[in-house]
Amino acid sequence: MKGLILALLLAATTLTQPAHAQIGASVVLDPTQSAHAVQQLIQSSQIYTTNLQTLTNVMETYNLAHRMATAPSSYYTAFANMGEQMWTQVTRPANTYGNSLPWMNAATTGGGAASANQGAGIQRTGQISGYNSLSSQGQQAIAAQGATIDLGDAVTSTSLQTIGTIRANSTQRASDIQTLETASHSIDPAQQTELATLQRINQAMLLQLRTQQEASQMTQAQSLQQMVQQKQQQDALKMSMQAADGYETNYATHTSTDSTGLSKAFSY
């Protein structure tokens, strides 16, 4: 390329000199035509350079398209044998007295959680007899214990239903993940388009959001259980403080102030 340009420049320099007719020769050099010819040669050189660059770009584009077309079969082969995390099957209970199997069914399906929880535990009773005849302090203590029992049953039933619902939906969730994984490993050109890839990304994000929602529900259920336990501890502490506050008054009221025994002791 450099040699061609140098030759053109030398030709242009030579052609700029005045032309003289040669005696006995029929060839006459025209400076104007020669300059035009040099300009055409320069333009041809530029066109050649442009075509060469275009060809290089086309080859790079083709190589990129070829790598993209063959990438799924080469990149995803290593992930084809990924381990699957499955729910562990719940062991079937012995159901000795007929009240453990409904509880386990609720833990795997989410149905009948409240009745199953009551059936597997001590039955809840109503107000104790003589409640209305108690003092206000006694009624408050009994009511606090009863509220702890009611709240504990409600929270346990809610947690049981939450776990059962999540487990019941795990089969469909596993199927959705398997479908997404199959599409990701596919070498079908229709699955390797930009739109198909974006759809799979959206589906993966939705699955992640649903998993986070389930995890949030489990966390809330655990928080409620901890709150009920904390309430029980607080109630016990408050009852102890109330008993300590009335200890001196109750002692002075209910303890006899008889000192005859002391007088008899000094009489011996």
Describe the protein in words.
This protein is an all-alpha fold. It has helices spanning about 1-15, 30-75, 100-110, 115-120, 135-185, 195-245, 245-255, 260-265. The chain has a domain at about 100-125 and about 135-245. The chain has 8 helices and no strands. The termini are far apart. Mean pLDDT is about 75; it is low at about 10-15 and about 15-25.
Describe the secondary structure blueprint for this structure.
Layout: H1 2-15, H2 31-75, H3 101-109, H4 113-119, H5 136-185, H6 194-245, H7 247-254, H8 260-267
Q: Could you give the distance between the termini?
A: 141 Å
Oligomer: single chain
Number of H/I helices: 8
The backbone outline, from C-alpha atoms, is elongated
What fraction of residues sit in β-strands? under 5%
Mean pLDDT: 76
Low-pLDDT segments: 8-13, 15-25
Please give the number of β-strands. 0
SSE order, one letter for each helix or strand: HHHHHHHH
Helix proportion range: over 70%
Gyration radius, rounded: 47 Å
Helix-strand makeup class: mainly alpha
How many strands, which pairing sense, and closed or not: the largest β-sheet? none
